[in-house]
Amino acid sequence: MEEDILEFHKLLGDIDEPVYLAQYDPESLKVKKVGPENAFTDRENVIQIDIDLGKQICSGEIRIGSCYIDLHQQEIKVSEYKNLFKIDDVLHRIPLKEWFDSDRIDLAIFLFDNEIKIELGEQWNGTYMSGVLPSKRNITWGGDKKLDFLITDYNDPNIIHDAFSVNVEELYKKSFSRPLKVGKTQFSVYTKRIFKNYVCINNENS
Predict the structure, then answer these.
(1) Where are the alpha helices (DSSP H) in 23-141?
(2) Rounded Cα–Cα distance for residues 98 and 180 (Å)
């Protein structure tokens, strides 16, 4: 009886573990499909991946939307998934930097004579050096990714001169600029906050 059990375990040990593959989009390098190799009829843009990672993705423990391919290393990388949502539903006047008492700035709005420029803090993989250590993470944004802005009379959000939106993904490692459409020297910028700390920076302070 003991010999039969040993023989059974030996047979189990001879069974090969399944090979897991990942198929990716060649332009974005985002992972489109993960599974055992027998689930793939199309082998274009496919690499072999670690079996444990493959099982975690297939079970939903790791979101496939957070995975991309590092072609140099020929492996899957997993980015951090950050779900954005509005902090509250109140219009928030964005203060000038000189009246802001924190080193942590999540989003900076530069005000030039005829242009407005928006930069996300480096800690979120943006271009604004906020005093916080840059992020070493790869971030996949989810949820409410639209940043809405109003250019209004000074301290009066009821008199609107311009309104525009920016998708947070447009601020990944680059800034966003557009013409500044207001005929006054004094005005305010309002938003419904998604990040905690926003500041406006006048051109002479930039």
Answers:
(1) 51-59
(2) 21
155 burial level (CB within 10 Å; 0-12, 13-18, 19+): exposed
State how far the alpha carbon of 134 is from the alpha carbons of 121, 129, 161, 183, in Å. Answer: 8, 8, 35, 37
SS3 203: helix
DSSP assignments along 104-136, one per residue: --SEEEEE-SSEEEEEEBGGGT-SB--SSPPP-
Show the tokens assigned to 32: 């489109």
Q: How far is CA 87 from CA 74, 111, 139, 146, in A?
A: 39, 24, 19, 13
* Residue 103 confidence (pLDDT): 77
pLDDT for res 6? 47
CA nearest to 107, candidates 148, 138, 162, 140: 148
Hey, what are 159's tokens?
A: 């008199």
Convert the pLDDT of each residue in 92-114 to its tens digit. Answer: 999 999 888 877 899 999 999 89
Element (H, E) at 6: helix 2-14
Which of 127, 109, 92 has its CA nearest to residue 203? 109
Confidence (pTM):
0.67
Handedness of CA 191, 194, 197, 201 (dihedral sign): negative
Regions of the chain short of the pLDDT cut 70: 1-16, 133-137, 204-206
**Helix and strand numbers, DSSP H then E, in the chain:** 2, 15
